């Protein structure tokens, strides 16, 4: 099963088994992973599901679209090179993704 | 569900498995609240998100499963008892805020404290023909499921109401290849929530994309043919063909339970800045709550009722703090979004009372923002396909920062770059 590992700003990690086709945000929220707010439910309107993707995993993800890129500039914690809004990352077969959540989303 | 739970296990009863109800339960557990929590809803669905019902879900871009807030494991682990398909019809409440709720099925649910997150219901149109099959409303999952099931069988749709729900549904159905006419009784679209320039932009956009929008439309009746809907007749005698009519003419807050237990209500349940109702102990959160305007700098005594996810979430957090005895005042910049097919509208702040607008338009990129000022200060923005503007204005209002109006009109200028924080000014 695909696995997403969420590490919070203090370094605490939690791995969650994910379903192909769900987003990395949905996987977190439905399982109560703290650190991801996702007020807009994944409609790319709020920039509160910001994550830093592990550098090794980042390149394996499909490139982001312009709207996500623009929204990221408004994230509560400044974006970095591997920032993504995880509502836009779809879980794929065999995915083993590692992301870190920022200190705050709002 | 017919066995009363013993009083010492009563805890908090949240009536309404809504965005507000879910957030309240989740926030309480995050704050270390230990007593039992019951989250009760009157629909026969797991707690789900509503915003996508008129957009991604209707269009088939996402499934029913992605609307579900939390897994059952989450509820179990956090000891939140989720009860569905139970409608509370009567509440006996004592002065200390505890009591018993009675459901239509005969269940009795005792509580030590009550939270009302009962939301609002679609306002019904009183018109000839509204009871015909094929005349629908869109408020909850069952409405959306029925609409979705009918769409493949219909060709001509009339949407009555040019508010957010009406426009979103019209844009979705248009995108799905239906012939859509949108009837708005007022002189412009979303007159209640956006300014004139934004209304005009939305009108032009949706017309250009094939939605036939009729403003100042006076609907006389809904016409049937046999036992199904056939069209909508306007006051000028014109009949618009329809095999499906969707009505979205606003909502009415569900205050009946609150009124029955003596809570002050006035366009919603009146609450204070901690989400406490007039008895000082029951909390009311979300679309049903009439609350002190939380915008920093709002006039004292100004009250407002929101119909938004952002308010449901933020006010629920405030209510959770009140319940655990660490009161925090509700303050924040309200924001809203509306996805209308491929158009993304984001609104930051409240534009009411503005004395100046600045339009930032970049037609080549399909971006269009309207900034609202009062006394020289930025108070709100409607942003179409312009998330950077939305984010910059939201941040500026929250920080009490300035965005000089004269410079803001140039769409090539980034608002964040010209924002002047209080320290700088």
UniProtKB/TrEMBL annotation, chain A:
Q: Which cofactor does it need?
A: [2Fe-2S] cluster
- Which CDD domains does the UniProt record give? fer2
Q: Does the keyword Iron-sulfur apply?
A: yes
Keywords of this protein's UniProt record, alphabetized?
2Fe-2S, Iron, Iron-sulfur, Metal-binding
Question: Which Pfam families does the UniProt entry name for this protein?
Answer: Fer2
What are the residue boundaries of the 2Fe-2S ferredoxin-type domain, all occurrences included? 2-105
Give the Gene3D superfamilies listed for this entry.
3.10.20.30
Q: Which family does it belong to?
A: Belongs to the adrenodoxin/putidaredoxin family.
Q: What is this protein called?
A: 2Fe-2S iron-sulfur cluster-binding protein
TrEMBL record, chain B:
Which Pfam families does the UniProt entry name for this protein? Pyr_redox_2, Reductase_C
Q: Which cofactor does it need?
A: FAD
Give the UniProt keywords, A-Z.
Answer: FAD, Flavoprotein, Oxidoreductase
Reductase C-terminal domain mapped to chain residues:
335-418
Instruction: Enumerate the spans annotated as FAD/NAD(P)-binding domain.
Output: 13-316
Q: Domain of life of the organism in this record?
A: Bacteria
The protein here is known as NAD(P)/FAD-dependent oxidoreductase
């Amino acid at each position: 099963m695909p696995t997403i590992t969420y590490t919070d700003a203090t370094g605490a990690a939690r791995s969650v088994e994910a379903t192909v086709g769900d987003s990395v945000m949905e996987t977190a929220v439905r399982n109560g992973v703290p650190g991801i707010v996702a007020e807009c439910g994944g409609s790319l309107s709020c920039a509160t599901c910001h994550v830093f993707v592990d550098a090794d995993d980042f390149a394996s993800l499909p490139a982001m679209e312009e709207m996500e890129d623009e929204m990221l500039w408004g994230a509560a914690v400044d974006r970095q090179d591997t920032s993504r809004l995880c509502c836009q990352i779809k879980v794929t077969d065999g995915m083993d993704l590692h992301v870190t959540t920022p200190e705050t989303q709002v | 569900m017919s066995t009363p739970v013993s009083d010492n296990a009563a805890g908090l009863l949240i009536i309404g498995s809504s965005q507000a109800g879910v957030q309240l339960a989740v926030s309480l557990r995050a704050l270390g609240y230990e007593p039992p929590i019951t989250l009760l809803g009157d629909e026969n669905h797991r707690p789900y998100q509503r915003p996508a019902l008129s957009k991604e879900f209707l269009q088939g871009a996402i499934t029913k499963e992605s609307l579900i807030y939390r897994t059952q494991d989450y509820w179990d682990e956090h000891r939140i008892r989720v009860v569905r398909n139970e409608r509370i019809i009567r509440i006996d409440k004592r002065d200390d805020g505890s009591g018993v709720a009675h459901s239509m099925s005969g269940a009795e649910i005792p509580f030590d404290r009550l939270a009302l997150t009962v939301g609002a219901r679609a306002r019904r149109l009183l018109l000839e023909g509204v009871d015909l099959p094929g005349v629908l409303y869109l408020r909850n999952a069952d409405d959306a499921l029925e609409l979705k099931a009918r769409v493949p069988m219909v060709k001509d749709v009339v949407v009555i109401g040019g508010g957010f729900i009406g426009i979103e549904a019209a844009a979705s159905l248009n995108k799905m290849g239906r012939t859509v006419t949108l009837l708005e009784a007022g002189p412009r679209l979303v007159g209640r929530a956006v300014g004139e320039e934004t209304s005009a932009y939305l009108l032009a956009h949706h017309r250009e994309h094939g939605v036939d929008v009729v403003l100042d439309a006076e609907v006389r009746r809904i016409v049937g043919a046999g036992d199904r809907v056939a069209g909508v007749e306007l006051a000028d005698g014109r009949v618009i063909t329809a095999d499906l009519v969707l009505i979205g003419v606003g909502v009415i807050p569900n205050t009946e339970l609150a009124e029955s237990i003596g809570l002050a209500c006035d366009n919603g349940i009146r609450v204070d800045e901690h989400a406490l109702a007039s008895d000082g102990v029951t909390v009311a959160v979300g679309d049903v709550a009439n609350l002190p305007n939380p915008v920093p700098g709002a006039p004292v005594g100004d009250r407002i009722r929101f119909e938004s996810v952002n308010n449901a979430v933020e006010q629920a957090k405030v209510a959770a703090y009140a319940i655990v005895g660490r009161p925090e005042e509700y303050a924040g910049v309200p924001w809203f979004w509306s996805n209308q097919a491929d158009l993304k509208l984001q609104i930051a702040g409240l534009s009411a009372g503005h004395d100046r607008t600045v339009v930032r338009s970049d037609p080549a990129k399909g971006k269009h923002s309207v900034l609202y000022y009062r006394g020289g200060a930025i108070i709100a923005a409607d942003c179409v396909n312009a998330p950077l503007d939305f984010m910059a204005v939201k941040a500026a209002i929250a920080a009490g920062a300035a965005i000089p109006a004269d410079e803001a009109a140039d769409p090539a200028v980034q608002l964040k770059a010209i924002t002047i924080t209080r320290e700088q000014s």
